[in-house]
Amino acid sequence: MFRRTFAARAAALSLGAALVLPTTGLVAGTAGASVRPNGCLVSADVKDSVAWADVVFRGKVQSTTREKRRFVYLVHVDHVWKRDSVLPDTARVQSPTPNVSGCSLGRLEAGDDMVFLARAKGSLFESDLSRGTAPSGTDLVNDIEGELGPGTSRNGSGTAPTAELTKVETVAPRAVSRLTAPGAALVLLGLLGLVGIGFAKRR
């Protein structure tokens, strides 16, 4: 499933990267891997890929820059499947260099929704095509959730806990007359007692 998912979604990225970076041609395939047209050897084992990654998350690309032969992506994180605690709301993801394998993500466009399987590199994260990073799609998300569960949404939905309101039964206050009646009765009894004592003394 993961191999088919990636093949459908990564082809455009692979070919796009080939236009801006040199490639080495076709690479012989190995067990559990597939070869993209630009020569990138891609892991087809989702379990192996998520185990390799320090973080697995989905995000929207905000910008792409080129820094010393690397593409660096500013990504707004909206859903995390692995290591939520180490991911800021906006993550910086870079492509590896030198890119002799042809596996760079290339120049991503602002607004692209991507699923990243990446490793921590200082204050950044590093990712490429070889471990399954690809445009977000239902099949890819299902594959990842099959290994890591539903994950945590950064948009206030998903598995984030929600507060529940409990209805509190209201009781109407007792009338003032009902509240004061017992006290008035005690006062009356006290007065009657005093009158009785005085009457007895006169006799």
Pick out the low-confidence regions.
14-31, 157-165
Structural class: alpha+beta
Q: What share of residues are in beta strands? A: 25-35%
Largest sheet: 5 strands, mixed, barrel
Whole-Å distance between the termini? 110 Å
Please state how the strands of the largest beta sheet are arranged side by side.
Answer: 3-4-5-7-6
The portion of residues assigned to helices is 25-40%
Helix count, per DSSP? Answer: 4
Write the H/E string, N to C: HEEHEEEEEEHEH
Average pLDDT over all residues: 74
The number of distinct β-strands equals 9
Shape: elongated
Rg, please? 35 Å
Describe the structure.
It is a single chain. The protein has about 200 residues and is of the alpha+beta class. The chain has helices spanning about 1-20, 45-50, 140-150, 175-200; strands at about 35, 40-45, 55-65, 70-80, 90-95, 115-120, 125, 135, 150-155. The strands form two sheets. A five-stranded mixed β-barrel has the order 3-4-5-7-6. It has a two-stranded antiparallel sheet with strand order 1-2. A hairpin with a 2-residue loop joins strand 6 (about 115-120) and strand 7 (about 125).
Please specify the SSE layout and strand pairing.
Blueprint: H1 2-20, E1 33-35, E2 41-43, H2 46-52, E3 55-67, E4 70-82, E5 90-94, E6 113-121, E7 124-126, E8 134-135, H3 138-148, E9 152-153, H4 176-202
Parallel strand pairs: 5-7
Antiparallel strand pairs: 1-2, 3-4, 3-6, 4-5, 4-9, 6-7, 6-8
What's the short story on this structure?
It contains four helices and nine strands; from the N terminus they run αββαββββββαβα.
Summary tags:
single chain; elongated; 26% strand; alpha+beta; five-stranded mixed barrel; 203 residues; two-stranded antiparallel sheet
